[in-house]
Design brief:
heterodimer, A: 807 residues, alpha+beta, 3 domains, seven-stranded mixed β-sheet, six-stranded mixed β-barrel, 25 helices, globular, B: 225 residues, alpha/beta, Rossmann fold, six-stranded mixed β-sheet, four-stranded antiparallel β-sheet, 7 helices, 29% strand, binds adenosine-5'-triphosphate, binds magnesium ion
């Protein structure tokens, strides 16, 4: 029986091979896309799942209820952890975590490695199994170090690492450490990534801050006891908070803080570590979190493509099934039962689906390297074979084949055998369902098209908006952690001073945009000014900053070597001036630091976007206060020879700093890097839209072939009666174009709502324009019209005598 | 073997009923060979389809081989059909994608006959109908007469007790038609298959044992030959 079914199925499929080939191509493209997208989504959701204690692990964060809104921060003061451990019995394990690069010296080797400064509980809490050593005591000594397998290999080669002594240079002071453990390779889907673990007490911030409750320097992770209820934490911590954070609370109160519902201006909270990979708004988490919106967009686009492809598949199956209504009728007169017919149709569908799936997975495998590069994905085809994915695929497969195979068969079977055999069937079209499915298909395609255009417009806007400083000809070079920043700046000034292509050199605490080092610093200071709380961003700069960056000075002057007291002077931006209010600000003093001398305003600069365009320009204060380090050197070069000058600067850097990589980049590259997330999103929409439209058109093409086949005789008669080719083409495509237009109108409000929401995330954004919607609708209609005309014209120009005679 | 009591078939046409069959009573005994005749549109095909359970009457009682068809469930009806009825059509209705051999084999598949048994049965009938040489051809490669021969062979492969034929010779020339009629008559006499055929040809009607005249949905006459 089965053999017979497969044989007939194959012959049937071969008979409609053009049709079926289109079906298979459409479905396999969709399967390939979905494989890539869903694997990526699954991977993103798999982050940190390997920690066996995951559900009990939390990250501590604080919320300050400031007058202008709540401020969450994950940074904690050094004495917090011992106090918590002593006073809060529900805590099982607790560990601080700070990370920085250290230089490792062993034998004649010197390596830059990423060190995590943690407490002893760290390895008990998190599941980082050790290849060597015992996790209960590897970090018991202050000078113990745990390396990862990779780090151990790069330091010691094939030698036994345990018991070896290495020299670590932490903030310029070398110290000896003994290797007591080797951790197995960290899975790539881990938020916490490190080369080595050392005790927190070794961190340079530790000793200075051991009793400082208002210096926020590191992250704190806790593992609670099994039956702990996280919702009680904040309330139960209130006495603790009041006792230890008195200074912060007082400061907040004097700034006019708004107490929350419980009457607190400052509170401590727990964020589940399970959500770590998606906590983009926490400001300070392990790893590089991704926005859930991004992951969910991937999921949605994948679903859209799958739905569109399934609709195609169902539509094509229905269309094809109708050409076979007579066969079904005949089989019924030969004694075929309902289930036997359903099975027969189902087997055909399974065969098509199977072909498409194999082709799709193959396609996914072939396009995977490109996909991984574009979307920074870590997936492999092998992931498909994991039980969860495999069963998901099988279920999806079964669902599609059942709908696409059973549904048309069910319709066929319901028809009266007698009328089918009389040939009355051709007249009965599967109109309504097919049309609604087409509308759904094109709604989704139009939606994706609109999203594509709008995200693209917004990104273009972000990239071309003048920021108020020179981003084209200024190079930003991170000073690295091997050197003292101000020294680096001095050396570079001297070296580049004679270079005719270099216009000026300066330095700053914070980068513009996002450099190749990926760091972002935020430094905000609040103080009381004439009874108001003023909060301002602080940027430590150096001489020639305004000149180097081409920032326009509105009043007063820049920092200058000719004035001696400029380390306590400040330059403010317009936003800050507006906040302070009043005229003649230049020359006045601000009580910025309670204990020290007030700072004198020496100049006011025009507003410039020192943060990304997601944010409005906020008050900014430029200072030369040496307490802040210089982390970036800025070099402005002549526009004529950017590339050559870059190479020259790189060369002189390498000559001077042999141990520090040159990571310089142009500021426009940095600002573009700020919108990487948006670009990826737009990339997803573009690919999604293109694929959705292509698949929809394959479906439309197949349906038009179907229609033309069905109406071949009618077309012939009409031509004999004198209808022109154009008339026939419009007759055939008119209905479909109307459906596409309807689909577009359904997509409009959804697209408008979605994109409006998305744009709210930008302080600087484009306005939604009606023509984008019109263009998307027009595009869809045009594509649909061309697709159908393709067949319609063929039918219309064919010799009518032929089609009539063949009846 | 077959009994129709007060069978009517009507279509609702704009509020009023148009009767295609009007209170038909008909009894057919085992071994009869009946020819149904009548003008076009008189309801011959409709009657045959109702007898063969391809169509349902609007009213009336229908007994086949002792079963009350009007009370049977879909599944039982299907089983009754499979085991006892073979259908031959004017338009042959062979399945284009199947070879001669496979077309003939198909009813056996639906009756869940074992593969080895199927082979023997099909080989046997191919031999009897003298179409062994054509067994791997597709319907489109056969002449009309050959196609109808295959149609008959297919209708007979399940050894039905009742063979229903709706103008089996309608698309054939007179010589091909004669061959089919000879075959029917032989089947009726030698194998005892009960046959009901619809025909427009006076000559073909004479092969049967009884002629029923249908006129405006009523049996006008029933003549034994
Ligand atoms: N679905 C239907 N709706 C309305 N009337 C129908 C329908 N099907 C058949 N009829 C009518 O039933 C009548 C009988 O049809 P039937 O096919 O039984 O005639 P017939 O005697 O076989 O004619 P012919 O010799 O031409 O084959 C016809 O008048 C036809 O118009
Ligand atoms: Mg008829």
């Amino acid at each position: 029986m089965l053999k017979n079914y497969i044989k007939t199925a194959w012959r049937n499929l071969w008979k409609g091979r053009i049709f079926n080939a289109m079906n298979v191509v459409g479905l396999s493209v969709a399967i390939a896309c979905c494989t890539l997208l869903f694997l990526t989504v699954h991977y993103e959701f798999s982050y940190d799942r390997f920690h066996t204690n995951l559900k009990d692990i939390y990250q501590v964060y604080s919320v300050s209820h400031r007058p202008q809104g709540d401020d969450a921060s994950t940074s904690m003061p050094v004495p917090f952890l011992p106090a918590l451990k002593a006073e809060y019995p529900e805590v099982k394990y607790v560990s601080r975590s700070a990370n920085s690069g250290v230089v490792v010296r062993y034998a004649n080797k010197e390596l830059d490695l990423d060190a995590h400064y943690v407490d002893e509980d760290f390895l008990k809490m998190f599941t980082f199994p050790l290849a060597k050593g015992n996790s209960s005591n590897v970090l018991s000594g202050l000078n113990n170090v745990v390396l990862t397998e990779e780090a151990a290999k790069s330091i010691f080669g094939n030698q036994e690492p345990i018991g070896k002594t290495i020299l670590l240079k932490i903030e310029d002071k070398p110290a000896s450490f003994m290797v007591t453990g080797v951790a197995k390779s960290i899975p790539s889907n881990s938020g916490i990534l490190f080369d080595m673990l050392i005790r927190f007490e070794n961190n340079s911030i530790y000793k200075d801050n051991i009793n400082q409750w208002d210096n926020w320097t590191h992250l704190v992770f806790v593992q609670m006891k099994e039956d702990f209820d996280p919702s009680t934490f904040t309330r139960r911590m209130q006495p603790f908070t009041k006792k230890h954070f008195t200074r912060s609370i007082e400061a907040l109160k004097s700034d006019g803080a708004k107490p929350d519902a419980d009457g607190n201006v400052f509170s401590l909270h727990l964020a589940p570590f399970a959500n770590n990979h998606f906590s983009v708004n926490m400001g300070g988490t392990e790893g590089s979190p991704v926005s859930k919106i991004y992951v969910i967009s991937l999921l949605i686009v994948g679903c859209f493509i799958l739905i569109i492809a399934c609709i195609n598949f169902i539509n094509l199956s229905i269309a094809r099934a109708f050409t076979r209504s007579r066969e079904v009728g005949v089989r019924k007169t030969l004694g075929a039962g309902k289930w036997q017919l359903l099975t027969q149709f189902w087997i055909e569908t399974v065969m098509v689906c199977l072909g498409a799936t194999m082709l799709g997975v193959l396609l996914a495998g072939l396009t995977m390297p490109t996909f991984k590069a574009i979307f920074r994905s870590h997936i492999t085809i092998g992931m498909l074979l994991q039980p969860a994915q495999l069963s998901g695929c099988i279920m999806l497969f079964a669902l599609i084949t059942v709908i696409a195979g059973f549904y048309p068969a069910l319709i066929m079977i319901r028809y009266k055998t007698v009328s089918v055999l009389k040939g009355n069937m051709v007249a009965a079209k599967p109109g309504k369902l097919r049309n609604s499915l087409l509308v759904v298909q094109f709604s989704l395609s139009t939606l994706l098209t609109i999203c594509t255009i709008i995200t693209w417009q917004q990104i273009h806007y972000l990239q071309s908006k003048p920021l108020g400083y020179n981003k084209m000809e200024v190079l930003s070079i991170p000073t690295g952690y091997n050197e003292v920043g101000s020294n680096v700046l001095q050396i570079m000034r001297n070296k580049l001073g004679n270079d005719p292509a270099v216009l000026s050199v300066s330095g700053a605490y914070n980068n513009m945009g996002r450099g190749t080092d990926g760091s972002m610093r935020t430094s905000i200071q609040g103080f009381n000014y004439k009874g108001h709380e003023i909060r301002t961003h602080i940027e430590r700069v150096d001489y020639d900053y305004l000149q180097t960056m081409d920032i326009k000075l509105l009043e007063g002057r820049d920092f200058s070597r000719t004035y001696s007291g400029d380390t306590t002077a400040i330059v403010i931006n317009e936003a800050m001036a507006a906040k302070l209010g009043g005229k003649n600000l230049v020359g006045s003093f601000l009580p910025m630091n309670d204990d020290k001398k007030p700072a004198q305003i020496i100049g006011i600069v025009k507003n410039y976007n020192f943060r990304s365009l997601h944010e409005e320009i906020e008050p900014l204060t430029l200072t030369m206060n040496p307490e802040y380090s210089i982390n970036y050197v800025y070099v402005k070069v002549k526009p004529a020879s950017l590339v050559q000058t870059f190479d020259r600067i790189q060369k002189s850097w390498h000559a001077e700093f042999t141990n520090t990589e040159f990571r310089g980049s142009w500021l426009n590259e940095n600002t573009e890097r700020q919108y990487q997330g948006e670009k990826r999103l737009s990339g997803i929409f573009v690919s999604g839209a293109i694929i959705a439209i292509i698949i929809s058109c394959i479906g439309l093409l197949a349906i038009s072939i179907m229609i033309v086949m069905q109406r071949n005789k009618e077309i012939g008669i009409r031509k004999v009666l004198g209808a022109s080719v154009t008339r026939i083409v419009f007759m055939l495509s008119g209905d479909f174009v109307k459906l596409v237009l309807l689909a577009a109108f359904i997509a409009f409000p959804v697209a408008w709502w979605l994109m409006d929401r998305w744009l709210q995330g930008f302080a600087y954004r484009i306005h939604l324009q009606w023509w984008v919607f019109a263009a998307a609708a027009l595009l869809a209609m045009l594509v649909a019209f061309i697709t159908i005309s393709f067949q319609a014209i063929k039918a219309a120009v064919a010799n009518p005598v032929k089609s009539l005679r063949s009846e | 073997m077959l009994s129709l009591k007060q069978i009517s078939k009507y279509y609702q046409a704009g509020g009023s009923k148009t009767y295609v069959l009007n209170r038909i009573d008909l009894d057919v005994d085992k071994g009869e060979f009946i020819s149904i005749m009548g003008p076009s549109g008189s309801g011959k095909s409709t009657l045959l389809n109702i007898i063969g359970m391809l169509d349902e009457p609007s009213e009336g009682y229908h007994y086949l081989l002792g079963e009350a068809v009007h009370q049977l469930k879909e599944k039982q009806r299907s089983a009754l059909y499979k085991q006892n009825i073979g259908f031959v059509f004017q338009a042959y209705h062979l399945i284009d994608e199947l070879t001669v051999y496979e077309n003939i084999e198909t009813p056996l598949i639906y009756q869940n006959v074992k593969s080895s048994e199927r082979k023997a049965l099909v080989a046997d009938i191919l031999d009897r109908f003298n179409i062994v040489g054509k067994k791997d051809l597709f319907p489109s490669q056969l002449s009309g007469g050959q196609q109808q021969l295959v149609g008959v062979a297919r209708a007979l492969i399940g050894k039905p007790k009742l063979l229903l034929a709706d103008e089996p010779t309608g698309n054939l020339n007179s010589k091909q038609g004669e061959e089919i009629m000879e075959l029917f008559s032989k089947l009726n006499k030698e194998d005892g298959v009960t046959i009901i055929q619809v025909t427009h040809s006076e000559k073909n009607a004479q092969y049967g044992s009884r002629i029923i005249e249908l006129l405006d949905g009523k049996i006008a006459s029933s003549t034994l030959i």
